[in-house]
Amino acid sequence: GAGVSQSPRYKVAKRGQDVALRCDPISGHVSLFWYQQALGQGPEFLTYFQNEAQLDKSGLPSDRFFAERPEGSVSTLKIQRTQQEDSAVYLCASSYALRGNQPQHFGDGTRLSIL
Amino acid sequence: AQSVTQLGSHVSVSEGALVLLRCNYSSSVPPYLFWYVQYPNQGLQLLLKYTTGATLVKGINGFEAEFKKSETSFHLTKPSAHMSDAAEYFCAVSGAQGAQKLVFGQGTRLTINP
């Protein structure tokens, strides 16, 4: 596809359920990032992949959050035993280069609501 | 460590007026600086970036920004506002080495009055 694709666009879950959010990066993009954007806030970094290797997961808020990119393309962010504070928009971004001077291209996000 | 401060969570200007959105950053390494725009229920779209070279950078939709190292600033401007500029604007910083996460400011909501 032409851009970063995220699915689902909207997800409603009950507290305690597990959820999985998918990101399809731009074809050929080596770097993939996940961000969390709370209502009225700027995005905050969660984790970063270079191909299939997860090089930085310092932003994951707890061990309930898990991300993978097994074949170096599609990535999944999984949240176990969801809590109300997990409600946010989850943004995925990809970049074709390894250096920070290349811009990150963002998907439209998944809006997660925990009831 | 890096951080970004955007002065003014809301800015309102008249159509045709100058737009000025302020961004100050803190970085222990040479920074790369970015401005992104976000429309409702959409992801972030890159407006412009500064990496190296010319400190005045031009972006899409008539926006430009100037990197001022001495002031640790990267303010975004547009000479004449258009109704379609109404959106949320985010300033972000990353490190200059390797693929780096973006650190974002809190955002500035720009409203255009007719």
Summarize the structure in words.
The complex is a heterodimer of chains A (115) and B (114). Helices cover 0% and strands 48% of the residues of chain A. Chain A contains no helices and eleven strands. In chain A, strands 2, 4, 5, 6, 9, 10 and 11 form a seven-stranded mixed β-sheet that branches. In chain A, strands 1-3-8-7 form a four-stranded antiparallel β-sheet, with no helix packed on it. Chain A starts with a strand and ends with a strand. The mean pLDDT of chain A is 94. With 114 residues, chain B is mainly β. Chain B has strands spanning 2-7, 10-14, 19-27, 31-38, 44-50, 56-58, 64-68, 73-78, 87-95, 103-104, 108-113. In chain B, strands 2, 4, 5, 9, 10 and 11 form a six-stranded mixed β-sheet that branches. A five-stranded antiparallel β-sheet of chain B has the order 1-3-8-7-6, with no helix packed on it. The termini of chain B are far apart. In chain B, 37% of the residues are buried. The mean pLDDT of chain B is 92.
Give the total of beta strands of chain A. 11
> In angstroms, what separates the terminal alpha carbons of chain B?
41 Å
The percentage helix of chain B is under 10%
Mean pLDDT of chain A: 94
Structural class of chain A: mainly beta
**Approximately how much beta-strand content do the residues of chain A carry?**
over 45%
**SSE string of chain B, helices as H and strands as E:** EEEEEEEEEEE
Biggest interface found: A-B, 32 and 29 residues
Report low-confidence residues of chain B grouped into runs of 5 or more: none
Output the number of helix runs of chain B: 0
Global Rg of chain A = 13 Å
What kind of sheet is the major sheet of chain A?
7 strands, mixed
Identify the quaternary structure here: heterodimer
What is the string of SSEs of chain A from the N terminus onward? EEEEEEEEEEE
